[in-house]
Amino acid sequence: MGKITRRSIIILNFPFSILNFFVSLQEKAMKGFASDNYSGIHPQILKALSDVNSDHAPAYGNDVYTEKAIQQFKQLLGKSVEVYFTFIGTAANVLGLKALTQPYHAVICAETAHINVDECGAPERFLGCKLLTVPTIDGKLRIADIEKFQSLVDFEHHAQPKVISISQTTELGTLYTPDEIKALADYAHSHNMYLHMDGARIANAAAALKMSIKGFTFDCGVDVLSFGGTKNGMMYGEAIVFKDASLCQNFKYIRKQGMQLASKMRYISAQFSAYLSDDLYLKTACHANAMAQLLVEKLSDIPEIEVTQKSSANAVFAKLPKAIIKPLQDEYFFYEWNEQNQEVRWMCSWDTTETEIENFVNLIKKLLKTT
In a designed cystine with 109, which of 165, 175, 219, 308 is the match (CB 3.0 to 4.6 A)? Predict the structure, then answer.
């Protein structure tokens, strides 16, 4: 198998090299640690899809399943919230930000933010806004990092800061505390800005913080939340949750123009309904987090491995000898995060098992002895 990095795949001669490359991937037991996006659908969510797959239902969200899911969100996050479903996380982020901005505005985010690194310029294209990025050591924004942008305010030659966007958990697997979120929200609101949260792994954050999602989002001043499910057992589907109706006037038109108004919305809604029932979202996230902690624990007695970030949820970042990266990838698919210093990212999922962790660590030890 060719060398796999987070940002690129080796360019191969088409068509046979590409075909052979992906065939080689499929021949392997692809249950590795590349991303929680790689996991399958939780059986309860798959059953929910099957259960609504009968008869006809009104389209475009005018069905009983969508109404039920929205009411569940209100129970979880507050009666005043407004909920809109989308297919994917990039759309949830971009359209949520669209509701808050004009093209002359700017969005402040960490340099590592998903909206900056992994959305192919979609925010800039569809918002028309500039992203103002901040280097961080742990993926977290701090007020001291963003105060400099106030010098741009009310000067027509510069894009105007309008939104602070944070990720919970961050792209480096770290967590904002509720106090840190509230401080950013207070700063944003006192400077005529909004606070947006990319919650692709919001359930993992709740499990790690041992708090309700409302407790570290809207109770702390978050204005718009992208609420993810795909990385934690859903087939597809995300939700844009606004703190109240004042933030999303005419948003139904924005979603339609953004090509995210699902005709058969019941298949997104039913997934969320199962996901939010009986704390399934929390149970799956707790398991994924626990597997990451187990991995860190088992790595702790291997001196050649350095865990580079505090593993707060279901991500583990580590540096390891370059000689073992490719042989390890040959057996377990994962990404090199930073090729310059041999840093990799390992993600645990709702279906990761202790046996998989044990076998993975044993292979690391074996490779360290033989390379």
Answer: 165
Residue 14 has pLDDT above 50, yes or no: no
**Phi, psi (rounded to 5 degrees) for 94:** -65, -45
Residue 12's pLDDT is 36
Is 213 in the same domain as 237?
Answer: yes
Answer for the pair 131, 148: CB distance below 8 angstroms, yes or no: no
Let me know: does 34 contact 335? Beta carbons within 8 Å: yes
Last residue of a domain, one of 237, 262, 278: 278
Q: pLDDT digits over 345-360, tens only?
A: 999 999 999 999 999 9
pTM exceeds 0.90 for this model: yes
Half-sphere exposure of 269 (CA within 13 A, CB side): 26
Residue 326 is part of which domain span? 16-41+281-370
What pLDDT is recorded for position 31? Answer: 76
